[in-house]
Write a structure and sequence with these properties.
single chain; alpha+beta; nine-stranded mixed sheet
């Protein structure tokens, strides 16, 4: 289906960005055990999604939505066939699954997580 499951905000200074979101919105962040300059953000209880604040050294687009897909390989084929492109290598994140960035035909970066 491609439901939004996560959002990444990029920053040149992740600590400063984390302090801002903590002060204004009450977000709690902790460093990811898998990537430097990547803070996993808990955004509150109830409906909604959590996110992350990551260094712009990874990606420059300021906000990146992540979509859950059932079959990552089939979705990558569909992305290419629909005029999009894969933006990087598929990676395995323990406990999360396989992940990769793609670009739509307009150049917008989207993250995909699937099996």
């Amino acid at each position: 289906m491609g439901r939004i499951i996560h959002v990444e905000l990029t920053a040149t200074d992740t600590a400063r960005a984390a302090a801002f979101y903590a002060e204004v919105f009450g977000w709690e962040t902790e460093p990811s055990p898998f990537a430097d300059e990547y803070l996993v953000a808990t955004t509150g209880t109830g409906e909604g999604i959590d996110g992350a604040i990551m260094g712009r050294g990874y990606q420059e687009q300021v906000t990146i939505a992540w979509l859950q897909v059932d079959d990552l390989d089939a979705t990558l084929t569909a992305v290419r066939e629909a005029g999009g492109s894969v933006a990087g290598d598929v990676q395995e994140i323990p406990g999360q699954g396989r992940v990769v960035y793609v670009r739509d035909p307009e150049g917008t970066l989207v993250g995909l997580r699937g099996q």
